[in-house]
Amino acid sequence: MIDTSGILETINMIKLHNLDIRTVTMAISLRDCMGSDIDVVCDKIYNKITKYAKHLVEYANEFENDYSIPIVNKRISVTPISIIGESCDNPDYVKIAKTLDKAAKAVGVNFVGGFSALVEKGMTKGDELLIESIPEALAQTERLCSSINVASSKAGINMDAVLKMAHIIKKSAWLTKDSDGIGAAKLVVFCNSPGDNPFMAGAFCGYGEPECALNIGVSGPGVVRAAIESLDKDADMSCLANKIKQIAYKITTTGELVGRKLAQRLNVPFGVIDLSLAPTPALGDSVAGIFQAMGLEHAGAHGTTAALAMLNDAVKKGGIMASSYVGGLSGAFIPVSEDAGMIEAASKGYLTFDKLEAMTSVCSVGLDMIAIPGDTEVETIAGIIADEMAIGMINKKTTAVRVIPVAGKKVGDEVVYGGLLGKAPIMAVNNLSSKGFVQRGGRIPAPIHSLNN
Q1: CATH fold label, 26-191
Q2: Directed axis angle between helix 304-322 and helix 237-266, to 10°?
Q3: Which of 25, 148, 188, 314 is deepest in the core (most CB within 10 A)?
């Protein structure tokens, strides 16, 4: 028997409520590209990426047509480049960055991630060189994304790296000031960064990953909102949670079907499915809209953090029942510039920086795509990063900071990036000095629960 109601429900998810495969990200290990000669290393990197990913966009487009489900982004993630570059006698990380960008253009992907380093416990010479090269690398490329992991629940918080990254964020925004600091929009600072995350700007191919794998990111905030709105207005919280789990199950099943078929066609292993409610500026594709469907007047109202906690948990429970390979971040993103409802809430003052920080204790990532005044002190940015890293470290979760200090802009102004990056109001930050604290350096020790061996 054909389940016509199920078919119609899936069609409506896609056509009416913005269900899509948000990204297919091919993770490629570059560990066999290491060598002493930078030119040889760059040639190996370019050849390997173009070999494995040459059909990624072509086949993804074919599957989009075959299954009638949008595949919005096609991306690549690679081994953290700090590891690859430090094998060279004379490392030139900007040259590697340009090689990655050239390879991404050659195969037609939207972004390439992995211009990264993992420095939660300290920095090697290669890590330091890569970090120092980030502003120039992002200013001279179009599709490159960078991420640095500065903290973990096992190692604590590397405060030297936190302060260094604050300087790097400020410089990245300054070097791309003609584009409203878009360099900083492609740079994220992590705690507990996962090595199989398919979403940018934080994607990289982790050290324990295979030679090549295809990771899928599925998104559907509009689908979840429509499902909640289909319930009676007096439905209790357990009914809400169950409905979200049911929808998450269906979304995950759809995404894994497409992901496995595409991986098979590309002749690479299927990696993970990341079920993250990643919003876009499109009408009806908003996580903030889900809060309103739950009964809050708007994102930022008291109760928003509780609503987000329930949403995140229900999404993960539904996804894990549908697949044994749920990974990445999986949950709900709360980027300001990429969510029409969050943009509105921030513009009207309903959503403050402090409220966003509170919400990050239960969301999938953290302070994401937030534009701040260009004259924000470096030490203030470091304090923002340190606070967010502490939330991740203590709660054993991934947290991240992607803030954009936009040169020449002040609170009340707006920046427009277009596309998935959307637009953002310049949000106020606390101007009390963090200087004496963040300049102490050293490492904030890991919490007691890190001793769980």
Answers
A1: Anaerobic Ribonucleotide-triphosphate Reductase Large Chain (3.20.70)
A2: 50
A3: 25
